[in-house]
Specification:
Layout lengths: L11 E5 L5 E5 L1 H5 L12 E5 L2 E5 L4 E4 L21 H9 L9 H20 L5 E2 L4 E2 L3 H5 L12
Antiparallel strand pairs: 1-2, 3-4, 4-5, 6-7
């Protein structure tokens, strides 16, 4: 955390899932220091596998080995939504012309993950999360940070 605010300016948070997947979320400067980045990429998402990596951001797609970029996704494999214009996609979705690149269920899970990472970074310790109950396991201090009182006159 920065001395003048409660906003993290440098971070590296690991998320470990029961299926064996590890998601590592870090700021751009920290990601450029990662051994696989070699001073490149920064912003975006990097998928690490047993045979190489793929990095994607809003402008480009990169991979090592480069031959990964030529692989075709099979009909029964996961196909991700391709949006070349997030703003236009959102407006079209509001008008009912197509589905959004980020549907509400994906947006909620993404926002939840970001909030959980912020809480872990703020407390500077490992936390365990129950996604079904949407609560921390055996950590009242972390759980207290999941919500805060609303300012008057707002209420639920």
């Amino acid at each position: 955390m920065h001395a003048c605010s409660d906003c993290a300016v440098r971070w590296r948070v690991e998320n470990h899932y029961n299926n064996g997947v590890t998601l590592i979320h870090m700021d751009d400067a920290t990601s450029r220091e990662h051994p696989l980045q070699k001073g490149g990429h920064g912003h975006g998402v990097m998928f690490l596998g047993t045979e190489g990596w793929v990095h994607v951001d809003r402008e480009k797609l990169d991979a090592q080995p480069a031959s990964l970029l030529g692989l075709k996704i099979g009909p029964n494999e996961v196909h991700l939504f391709n949006s070349g214009n997030h703003g236009g996609n959102f407006v079209d979705a509001v008008k009912g012309r197509n589905r959004p690149a980020a549907p509400i269920d994906v947006a909620v899970r993404t926002d939840t993950l970001c909030n959980l990472q912020f809480i872990a970074a703020r407390l500077r310790r490992k936390l365990r999360w129950d996604p079904e109950k949407e609560q921390f396991l055996n950590d009242p201090e972390a759980s207290a940070l999941l919500d805060r009182p609303m300012r008057a006159p707002w209420k639920l």
